[in-house]
Design a protein that fits this description.
- The protein contains four helices and three strands; from the N terminus they run H-H-E-E-E-H-H.
- It is of the alpha+beta class.
- A three-stranded antiparallel beta sheet has the order 1-2-3.
- The longest helix has about 35 residues.
- It starts with a helix and ends with a helix.
Length: about 120
């Protein structure tokens, strides 16, 4: 029995570690120019007339973004705490600046995630 190229590819995709940078979605096939009507995720053309839904990449990206949100929240909270603990002065000012920067990054990220969620919902995803 000859090995099935499509099954080998599916197995390779399934075995890829989450958040892996080793996997190249371009290696799956050229972008098809189509998106999934349900989730708006990209489709790659694996073989002529055969498409691979790249939802896994979208799920990994969403997980990474939520990890970033939690990390920024913790960074801001810890920096505010340390600023209070050190009392007035340059060190407290530095911790306050770090907290401000983390909170700004958090607001930008939250705005982008909210906009992406609204777009997905508007498309019926």
């Amino acid at each position: 029995m000859e090995p099935d190229d499509s099954m080998e590819l599916e197995s390779r995709i399934a075995m890829t570690e989450p958040f892996s940078t080793d996997s190249d979605s371009e290696a799956l096939g050229p972008p098809s120019g189509y998106v999934c009507p349900d989730c708006s995720d990209s489709l790659a053309e694996i073989f002529v007339g055969s498409y691979r839904w790249l939802l896994r990449r979208g799920q990994e990206m969403e997980s990474a973004l939520w990890f970033a949100v939690r990390s920024l929240q913790e960074k801001a909270k810890l920096s505010r705490y340390l600023a209070k603990q050190t009392g007035p002065g340059l060190i407290a000012d530095r911790y306050s600046t770090i907290a401000d920067e983390a909170e700004h990054a958090l607001s930008v990220l939250d705005e982008r995630l909210s906009a992406a969620t609204r777009q997905s919902e508007d498309r019926g995803g």
